[in-house]
Design brief:
By secondary structure, this protein is mainly alpha-helical. It is about 60% helix and about 0% strand. It is globular, with a radius of gyration of 20 Å. The chain starts with about 25 loop residues before the first helix and ends with a helix.
């Protein structure tokens, strides 16, 4: 098995590989497979190589349909923070006291509060109550969710892949928040959607490992098999996870349809935000020069059609690298 490198044509990439929109017919077939309740036998010793991706995908789909995988569990403190964020009677002091009980989550929150993303105007923030008060409950909720996912979701034997998927989720979250702010949409909801939209991929990696471990095939290439499986199944699996975590209403639907060529009307704007955010992350990762004056991003069709004023595009391109790098550094 080869290990995916965190750049270029890797299996965590959507725009770089040209695999962004999902064909409606393929999407419908994947949905049918995800409802298949009958157990499937292990892969036979000999399979037509051209059919191998579909054979593996069918067994991964069967695992999911039968509940043979357990959705990742968030740390209990994180679950309580998410619940408290929806309670109108909750206070910043109560939330800070709760987060204080988990050193990892507390550290991540303080690091985020002092990052360029949230721009402390004067001095550094050293106390959790101050961080919660400065950032607001919804932003704190998002940072705690991100830290909890880093702890529990993006783990496993494919270390390089999990690291890249994690960084890509933060890249999409930061990009979605900035783009939404400039579009006068809800930046906190956008951050959460960017963070969650590809959460199905690490779960699919675990399911693929279980299928391949049972296989009698020799020298199966995880990377090659994962590309089409990730592309086709991650929206549905991600939607199942978001639903399982009881996150705010509508997020699961947005995750499910974010790769549709014609998403539902109420998802279209969010799908565009995600597409721009993914473009920003992949250019930051692979071609940082595109953020400079005269780079490809300044005239990219997706940005020009979304932001009529060149100075708005320039502002986005100025803010994105420093915001992302400061958050990743935490």
């Amino acid at each position: 098995m080869t290990t995916p490198m965190p750049h270029g044509q890797n299996i965590g990439s959507a725009l770089a590989t040209g695999l962004y929109e999902i064909d409606p017919g393929d999407f419908a077939e994947a949905q049918r497979e995800l409802r298949h309740q009958d157990p499937l036998p292990p892969l036979p010793a000999k399979v037509d190589p051209s059919q191998l991706p579909r054979e593996v995908r069918m067994r991964v789909s069967a695992m999911i349909a039968q509940g043979a995988f357990e959705p990742p569990r968030l740390p209990e403190i994180a679950v309580q923070v998410l619940r408290q964020a929806e309670d109108p009677k909750g206070s910043a002091e109560d939330m800070a006291a709760l987060i204080h009980r988990d050193p990892f989550l507390a550290g991540r929150l303080l690091a985020a509060a002092n990052s360029a993303m949230f721009r402390p105007r004067d001095r550094g923030i050293t106390r959790l109550p101050e961080a919660v008060a400065r950032m607001g409950v919804r932003q704190v909720r998002n940072i705690i969710l991100a830290a909890a996912m880093e702890q529990t979701v993006y783990r496993g034997r494919h270390t390089a892949l999990m690291s890249e998927l994690w960084r890509a989720s933060i890249g999409a979250a930061v990009g979605s928040r900035l783009v939404s702010s400039l579009m006068r949409r809800d930046p906190d909801r956008a951050f959460m959607l960017g963070l969650l939209h590809d959460v199905g991929k690490p779960v699919l990696a675990w399911c693929m490992d279980q299928v391949l471990l049972q296989s009698q095939q020799d020298e199966l290439d995880f990377d090659q098999l994962a590309r089409p499986i990730f592309h086709l199944l991650h929206p549905q699996v991600g939607s199942l996870i978001v639903t399982h975590w009881n996150l705010p209403k509508g997020l699961a639907t947005a995750v499910l349809h974010h790769h549709d060529p014609a998403p539902p009307e109420d998802i279209k704007a969010w799908a565009r935000v995600l597409r721009i955010a993914n473009l920003l992350y992949e250019c930051w990762r692979d071609s940082p020069e595109d953020f400079d004056e005269g780079g490809m991003l300044h005239s990219h069709t997706l940005l020009v059609r979304s932001f009529r004023e060149p100075h708005t595009i320039q502002r986005l391109l100025n803010l994105y690298p420093v915001s992302l790098e400061s958050l990743l550094a935490g």
